[in-house]
Amino acid sequence: MRIKSNNLIIKFKKGLFKNKTDSSITIFLILIIIFFFSKIINWLVNIADWKVVLENLDLYGFGSYPHSEIWRPKLWITLLATLCFFTLFSSKQSFSRKGLTLSWILIIPFGIFLLAGGFGLAEIPTRSWGGLTLSLILTLCSAAIALPLGIILAIGRQSNLKLINLTCKLYIDLMRSFPLISVLFFGQLLIPLFLPVDYEVSRFIRAVFAFGLFSSAYIAEDIRGGLQTIPSTQYEAADVLGFNKRQTLLLIVLPQAIRTALPALTNQAIGLLQNTSLMAILGLVELLGISRSILANPEFIGRYLEVYVWLAALYWFICTVMALISRRIEHQLNL
Question: What's the CA gap between 187 and 189, in Å, rounded?
Answer without folding.
Answer: 6
